[in-house]
Amino acid sequence: MIEDDSKLYMLATAMFDEVPNKPPYNEDPEGEQQVRDFDHCLQLMNTLLTVPPKWSQKAEDVGLIGCPFNAVLDWYESFSDYLSTSG
Question: Which of 48, 19, 49, 14 has the alpha carbon at shortest distance from 33?
């Protein structure tokens, strides 16, 4: 659906370009690399829908036990204003 609509695809890909590629935005709270493109995001969403999340003490210590979809979209939820300003 998104790939078939040029405006939606532009907005979806621009969301990832908006987040700076520098600390603290270049890593998630566990120190892992952040999602940097739309295709990778879709791959992760597919995995979240098909594989149960695993628990780790490191994730618990930084408060990441919860909804895995929020972890994937962590920085993009706060930076992207494309959807709110386009109409």
Answer: 19
pLDDT digits over 58-87, tens only?
877 877 666 667 667 766 655 555 445 544
Where exactly are the structural domains of the chain? 6-85
pLDDT computed for residue 83 by the predictor: 46
CB count, 10 Å around CB of 75? Answer: 19
Instruction: Report the C-alpha gap between 54 and 56 in whole angstroms.
Output: 7
State the amino acid at position 77 in one-letter form.
E
| 53 closest CA partner among 70, 36, 37 | 70
Token digits of residue 37:
């493109």
What are the CB-based long-range contacts (under 8 Å, 24+) for 58-62?
A: 58/30, 59/30, 62/29, 62/30
Q: Are 76 and 19 in contact (CB under 8 A)?
A: yes
